[in-house]
Design brief:
Blueprint (H helix, E strand, L loop, with lengths): L1 E3 L4 H6 L7 H4 L4 H6 L3 E3 L6 H11 L5 E2 L6 E2 L7 H7 L2 H10 L8 E3 L2 H10 L5 E5 L10 E4 L12 E5 L2 E10 L8 E8 L5 E6 L4 H18 L7 E10 L2 E11 L4 H12 L4 E8 L9 H8 L11 E4 L7 E8 L2 H15 L15
Parallel strand pairs: 1-2, 1-4, 2-3
Antiparallel strand pairs: 5-8, 6-7, 6-8, 9-10, 9-12, 10-11, 11-14, 12-13, 14-16, 15-16
Amino acid sequence: MSFLPGFNFEQRLFFPQQPVNNLISEEFDYLILLLEYEALATDRVFDQDYLSYLKKIKEDDVIISSSKDGSHYWWGEITDIELSQKINSKIFSHQVAKNFDLVPESCRLIENAFDFKNHIQQYKEYHRWVVKSPYSFSGLGNKVFDSTHLPQLEWNEPVLLEPWFNRTLDIGMTYLKQSRFQDYFGVQNLNDPQGRFKGALIQPFMPEVEELHGKLKPALHYLSTLSPENNLQIDAFYYLEEGERKIYPLVEINCRKTMGWVTWSLWKKFGTQNIGVFLMWPTSALKKSESWKSFENSIGDQMWTKNTAKGFLPLSPLDRKFMTFFLVESNIKQAQNQIVELWNKLSKKESPLPLEFMIYF
């Protein structure tokens, strides 16, 4: 068996008539080489030093096949398109959250300009808002705006309207299909100020994960009766309002692999006794490396070693839009120090460490 990356899951699901953007579809294809024992089906040529590095840390072969016949989409299969469209839509997510009392009253599904303005006027205490397309993902396509400057919308589809909450902690809960959604884990998502995913942190125990699991149980039971095709991932977050810590338990549902699952898989492979941090840094913000070996040398003694079971594992080839890393460390403070040190080594001088990677306060 072989795998096609298929990271353009939402496009395949909701907009199959659009031409495939291979840059999106294949950006993270190397994860298949590291996490799977079947072949990656691709025409792409990888640097041999990079492949040797992957083979070393994987302690097994990395397999590439030029044949795509009979390949499966790794990021998420779609066999029941109606069910997949339903579960992965933000409209459905909001309906489930509302039915199980898992969403703040100020969040609303809006279908026209009149209701849009009325809802904002009803909640005058909120000055910033975000409007979400029902078919977007990873924060892409969200529009953040001030209540005094409303955006112009086409209203060819319902939108989800929410206050721009003062978020303090983003959590991604994953329920595994192979256990009939009984086994679960949670990661702290590292999102940028616009809500776009940039990384994740996982550790042996997080009290918020257990609190969320308790709140999500009734909704999860309902979702499992629908026989989803893939893992269920539920985004949630904690926020501050008038000095009180509150929770938004079900922001959206994704029925496919996620970067939270990737983070958990890397953690299982390289260090469950410690914390793990998945990082996604824009290549444009980093100094250019001429070769894979020179890139390893630039990381130096911060590289992960099997003996210490700590350090950075660079994951992506040098030719990608994002350079990704997995860090294994004993505690969050140490991890923060390591992240700052590596950023200072690799980044261009004019680029400060983005706030979303400040994980220790």
